[in-house]
Design a protein that fits this description.
single chain; about 220 residues; alpha+beta; five-stranded antiparallel sheet; about 35% helix
Length: about 220
């Protein structure tokens, strides 16, 4: 029903990001904690209005049924019938500077890497709001650094620091110019059965909120 309301999974994700566009930007003098609380509150209101506020116990059951190794940000589990992975993130413990950055990074990943990252909903655990997303399960292996670099360069990315293993790459976009992508370390990239490298947790850098929003508008996101 939420997908119907927003015109599909990407419309729902865009709606969630737009609900945060004027919240938690750090321009109002608020501290990081207060800014994060503002974003969490805005996302909770959006989830309630969209009908995607989830039951914490049900999410826990999904995460416990087929757990997978997650990273610092996420608890991860396999959804075998759907062929997808479910990811649970405490919105106050994200590595990105803001929740808006996190959600729009998902949009940008779908755009540049033809992925299908989806927002499913949110749930409350005590005083902490959690964001639940899914993405396709990829059966493959993590490449070593030389394979990662060569494979991403074949996909059109450019390594600005060839003497390091920073995980930072550049996409040369005809409309935006240079787009900085970071966190592309071996653990965040999977080589599938065809040899194609698929980033599974990419992040994008912009100098400020206004530049990020302008880029999203330019790309039609």
């Amino acid at each position: 029903k939420a997908h119907d309301l927003f015109g599909g999974s990407q419309g729902l994700l865009r709606g969630a990001a737009q609900s945060l566009a004027d919240t938690g930007s750090g321009d109002d003098g608020a501290g990081a904690g207060e800014s994060g609380d503002d974003e969490a509150g805005a996302l909770r209101r959006f989830a309630t209005e969209a009908g995607i506020l989830m039951d914490a116990k049900s999410v826990e059951e999904l995460l416990s049924a087929n757990p997978m190794r997650g990273g610092k940000e996420h608890r991860v589990a396999l959804l075998p019938k759907e062929g997808r992975v479910i990811k649970d993130a405490d919105v106050h413990a994200l590595a990105t500077e803001s929740l808006h950055d996190y959600l729009t990074d998902l949009l940008l990943s779908n755009y540049y890497f033809e992925d299908d990252l989806q927002m499913i909903g949110c749930y409350q655990a005590g005083d902490r709001l959690h964001l639940v997303t899914t993405q396709p399960y990829v059966d493959g292996t993590h490449p070593d650094w030389p394979e990662l670099k060569a494979g991403l360069m074949k996909r059109g990315l450019r390594d600005p620091y060839p003497r390091s293993q920073s995980g930072v790459f550049i996409i040369d976009d005809l409309r935006l110019g240079e787009v900085d992508v970071f966190d592309l370390h071996p653990n965040n990239v999977i080589r599938d059965a065809t040899g194609l490298l698929l980033p599974i947790d990419a992040h994008f850098y912009f100098p400020d909120r206004a530049a990020r929003v302008a880029a999203l508008h330019t790309l039609g996101l």
